[in-house]
Amino acid sequence: MGKVYLVGAGPGDPELLTIKGLRAIKEADVILYDRLINKDILDYAEPNTKFFYCGKDPYRHSLPQEETNRMMIQLAKKGHTVTRLKGGDPFVFGRGGEEAEQLATHHIPFEIVPGITSGIAAPAYAGIPVTHRDYSSSVAFITAVNKPGMDKEAYWQHLAQGPETLCIYMGVKRLPEICELLVKFGKNPQTPVALVHMGTATSQHTVTGTLQDITNKAKEITNPAMIIVGDVVNMREKISWFEEQAFKENVNLAK
């Protein structure tokens, strides 16, 4: 019997990969990887490692989730050490819980290796702390993709009246609706909002505004992007650091 590592590869910057995640890559003889991982970290694998792409995007599924589960189980039963590389953290909107459940059901040994989720990293690289002593003592990591049958209005009403900072995954397409619902259920239209595209990558781009005007300001932003809602967004004016640094490095490389 082999073993499976469910590894969070981080949000994009390859240096944010954990030491334990790096070890799992080096030990694997088979790696199943997702769309949003930085492909540079695959270079850490041993020369004879086999790679399988399991990525999904908003428009097509390259490999159905059920097929990914089946591959992990079959490979482990054949004695392989399998590392399943997932963007961000495997248990934060990464379906890692479902994969671990399948492995446990089939009595496959496995380990969970947490990673840095984009809900923390993208704001940090944009100069936005998700909590701050003066502005926010609570934060929620939420998905804009609601389950079938869910009461959408009740969901957003709860969030509008709850945590002071909202970090919203998979929400770019629904940005106008999200802003409308949050205002409808009590958020001030002047609440600051930021969209961070390709967070922690050298191509990171951030747009800020309010619930009232962010839809017009962020028309050019596409997936993948993290949406941050709350007063902490205003901290970006003081502590933004990464995008200016990345721009200077790109200019120097171009010379």
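Second entry:
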Amino acid sequence: MKGIILAGGSGTRLRPLTGTISKQLLPVYDKPMIYYPLSVLMLAGVRDILIISARDHVDMFRSMLGDGSRLGLELSYAAQDEPRGIAEAFLIGQEHIGDSPVALILGDNVFHGPGFSSLIHQAAARLDGCELFGYPVKDPQRYGVGEVDAEGRLVSLVEKPVKPRSNLAVTGLYLYDNDVVDIARGLAPSARGELEITDVNRAYLAAGRARLTALGRGFAWLDMGTHDSLLQAGQYVQLLEQRQGERIACVEEIALRMGFIGPEQCHALGRELGDSGYGRYVQETARRTPARAPESAVGSTAA
């Protein structure tokens, strides 16, 4: 499976913070925002990842993450000249996707919960069309809302419903088979001139090939699109890390536990981070954790 992180957009709701920098490079407590969606794809076992950003920001991401080899990944980059909808990612990334299925995640989403890696692996293993992830919210009128049957098949999908038929908001993590490229290519732009991801999902729904997994009690899904939500996400990460003594979305640790790199490489990455709390954590993790194969690491580290 190939991966795409959509880190485009102009971040207008976060200005002036985003006057000269991509939103996805802003700090969320102790690490850049981009680490959080990257960690989700890594936990899913996805190692070949395309990062799509505004043209002015591509070199910023490349400078931070390089080609990914230090983490046992293959990272590539592409520009989105202007925001034209989430589904445009499949057209920009069609060469990257090739004949493979694809996992798409929005660059400003945080997912965290027990056994999340196992959950994604299970969804990918049964993929036959599209797999969405729903999160229960108290105000579903503000979201795209999915309704499922007893087997988890999607039976309805409505954007900002006046009378919601469920409380499951569709999150910014999507798994698709290779048909998604042709589906996206055949979409008509919305009134806003965008290729809507909801239209992609409705195409799979109409074909009876859409599922939705509910992220239940114990999970957190955060969308960092405003000043308040960005601050809240940082506070959430700070609270859990300080209480539990473990890092959320520590990509070096995940690379080690997934078997993408070995302890020596992990320790070297920690040394390069200097005498920061994050760097010391990475080094200590390398010292006390032997490398494990991806199969044994599934579910071991939450995003």
